[in-house]
């Protein structure tokens, strides 16, 4: 079975803090993705990576950065958290282009 | 540009009823992929099915069935004899062939509530 794990299920941070969300997959997938999910807005792609050290902006990259130093790990970084980044963050991975994306359990982030 | 529409934001049924979740998509590609995911209250998106645009055969998996019709750009999902455990938000998604990283475009989701 594909396993995608995320470092935290719930996080509470203060405005201005630097926040790291970690995602690990154990299936040797090339592609990894970060989405955020908000009521009424559905899932929106923040960044994705198709190889180690490679990254591409998604639909809403502003305020975020990513890091992929190892194939199995993809980190989402909020350099200076703001209240409008309070959201559910979902990580996903897939083997190749056009293959199915498998999702992690999600991290609910609250920025106070 | 690709787009997925799930017109039903919320559906409520009583256990054992059949229910169909609608999905309509827009794409200019001739090769594309359609997906359904389930998101239970725990939050994780669970993959249900993947379909490519050349395979219009309907699929059945237990109580779940999918009807793919290219003529109407629809990929509808039916749950037969619904159960309380089917309560979740269901997302339809589209991926166009060749787009970098197989980015998914999601519909807005349909919240299904199955009452005992």
Protein described:
Chain A is built from no helices and eleven strands. Chain A has 112 residues and is an all-beta fold. In chain B, strands 2, 5, 6, 10, 11 and 12 form a six-stranded mixed beta sheet that branches. Chain B has a four-stranded antiparallel beta sheet with strand order 3-9-8-7, with no helix packed on it. In chain B, strands 1-4 form a two-stranded antiparallel sheet. Helices cover 0% and strands 53% of the residues of chain B. Chain B has strands at residues 3-5, 10-14, 19-21, 24-26, 32-39, 46-52, 59-61, 64-69, 74-79, 88-96, 105-106, 110-115. Chain B is mostly beta strands and 116 residues long. The mean pLDDT of chain B is 92. At the A-B interface, strand 5, strand 9 and strand 10 of A face strand 5 and strand 6 of B.
Features:
heterodimer; A: 112 residues; mainly beta; seven-stranded mixed β-sheet; four-stranded antiparallel β-sheet; 11 strands; globular; B: 116 residues; six-stranded mixed β-sheet; 12 strands
Portion in beta strands of chain B: over 45%
Question: Which H/E pattern describes the elements of chain B?
Answer: EEEEEEEEEEEE
Shape of chain B: globular
Indicate the low-confidence ranges of chain A by residue numbers.
Answer: none
Number of DSSP strands of chain A?
11
Largest sheet of chain B: 6 strands, mixed
Share of helical residues of chain B: under 10%
Summarize model confidence as the mean pLDDT of chain A: 93
Q: Biggest interface and which pair forms it?
A: A-B, 28 and 24 residues
Q: Order of SSEs of chain A, N→C? A: EEEEEEEEEEE
> Which structural class do you get from the secondary structure elements of chain B?
mainly beta
Distance between the amino and carboxyl termini of chain B: 41 Å
**Count of helical segments of chain B?**
0
Number of helices of chain A: 0
Helix content of chain A: under 10%
Instruction: Name the poorly predicted regions of chain B.
Output: none
């Amino acid at each position: 079975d594909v396993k995608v794990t995320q470092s935290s299920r719930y996080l509470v941070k203060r405005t201005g803090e630097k926040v790291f969300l970690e995602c690990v997959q154990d299936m040797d997938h090339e592609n990894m993705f970060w989405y955020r999910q908000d009521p009424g807005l559905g899932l929106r792609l923040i960044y994705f990576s198709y190889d180690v050290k490679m990254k591409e902006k998604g639909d809403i990259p502003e305020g975020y950065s990513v890091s992929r130093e190892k194939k199995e790990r993809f980190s989402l970084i909020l350099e200076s958290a703001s209240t409008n980044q309070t959201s559910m963050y979902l990580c996903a991975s897939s083997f190749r282009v056009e293959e199915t994306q498998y999702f992690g359990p999600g991290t609910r982030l609250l920025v106070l | 540009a690709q787009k997925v529409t799930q017109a039903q934001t919320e559906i409520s049924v009583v256990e054992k009823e059949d229910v169909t979740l609608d999905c309509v998509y827009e794409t200019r590609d001739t090769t594309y992929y359609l997906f359904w995911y389930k998101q239970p209250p725990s939050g994780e998106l669970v993959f249900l099915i993947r379909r490519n645009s050349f395979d219009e055969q309907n699929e059945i998996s237990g109580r779940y069935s999918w009807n793919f019709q290219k003529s109407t750009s629809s990929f509808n999902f039916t749950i037969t004899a619904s159960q309380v455990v089917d309560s979740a938000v269901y997302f339809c998604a589209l991926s166009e062939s060749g787009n970098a990283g197989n980015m998914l475009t999601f519909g807005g989701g349909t919240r299904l509530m199955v009452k005992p």
